[in-house]
Input
Amino acid sequence: MKLKNEYLYRHTWILYILGNLLLLGLLLFARPINNSKCWFIIPGIGSIQPSEFMKIFLMLALATMIHNFRSDYDNPTIKEELIFILKTLIIVLIPSILTFLQPDTGCVLMYIVIYISMMFTSGIRLRWFLISFLIIFLLLGSVGLLYFYKEDVFIKIFGSSIYYRLERVFNWQEGSGLQLENALAAIGSAGFFGHGYNKTPIYFPESSTDFIFAVYASNFGLFGVIILLGIIIYLDINIIMLTKRKIQDTDKFIVAGILGMLIFQQIQNIGMTVGLFPITGITLPFVSYGGSSLLSYMLIVGILLNISVKENRTYKFK
Output
């Protein structure tokens, strides 16, 4: 809050380049942990995950680009919009490729959600979204056909690593897998008030990160879940109300990205924990374990608070 958002906007591209250099550094120098190069190990401090901060840097870059585009073109032509979209896609693709190679599919999904959320507020023509969704549908359909009917061809093209990542995602259709089965058992046995704090009755992998909701639900039951969902909805509503205030365009684009990311993570994490959505490794904001994750969300809170108090700060300054 002391830095103020304007400071971040002025240094957007420095932060964006720094974020990508850190992602590249992971691939070149980081030590693999669970077959993933997602963390730098800093002696005496612990680990740091650059992709968590890249989400913020990406939002800043996109917000700046959208603001400049809208300032330069009152009524852009189709060609001008197309050039703008291609530029923004490049900005998103660079960190997405670097993060996917770690591999960290969950963060890549969040980059995409942030991009779509912010582009919806950019004022570009609706036809671009329809064309994009059609292309994505055809691409995913082609990949799906290879995965289900030509496994050997799929592995030759994409490799065994991506094949097993997709296999993990599709396990949710049958409700199979140790994580999901044990998480459902823990939640289902909790009752109204749960088993009590730190008394999860059954083990499942990634309980402190991806499946933290199952731990919480098993400890505090339906009553605790209602309270948690109430807090989440209250937070989201307050962020939505922030967009209805008279704030500058760049701030609105940032809020759109933050809101899209938070809602996606909340729905995806809780949904995959109870078997409604594929298991993707998406964490629950402010609840899942992780120092880098928590710090990145506190930075986001600082950005939101800056936007919220800007009017009062301006009035006081005058």
Notes: Residues 5-124+175-317 form one domain.
